[in-house]
Sequence to fold (166 residues):
Amino acid sequence: MSTALSASPTADNVQTGLNKADTVTIANALKDALADSFTLYVKTLGVHWNVVGPNFFSLHKLTEEQYQDLAGAIDNIAERIRALGQIAPASFGDFRVASAIECETTIQNAEEMLTGLINDNEALAKRFRAFTAVAEEAEDVFTADLLTARIGQHEQNAWMLRALVA
Ligand SMILES: [Fe+2]
Fold:
């Protein structure tokens, strides 16, 4: 196989001032962030599709904005892993193992769905804080910036969902 088509990690080619060992550590944190974001994306879609009740239209629209934002974030996080010379995981199995949040398979009422989404957004903000610290420690300012923005977004998501059900 030509080098250009090789799918093996190419951290050796990342010569941007980052320590080579650090690129692996940062990419591992990003892989967990990717798994969390993908899992929340699927869960947010589930609420968008299945929620019913007096706030249906507002929740349907709000969750649409949130899953669209998450779709963009997933792509950005995965591409950052590639820029660090590592392989971006892309299987449900990998995401399930690495994500800190669960995807419920049982039917839930609107209140349970929303409480779940609020808790998950807060859990991601909290977890991403630790990932940001990993990037900062390695002086990877770009990854730290990317993750910091995601923390703010998940805090905003939790606030908006909570305000809707108050
Ligand atoms: Fe839709």
In short: The domain at 18-165 is CATH 1.20.1260.10 (Ferritin). The pocket of fe (ii) ion is lined by residues 48, 64 (CB under 6 Å).
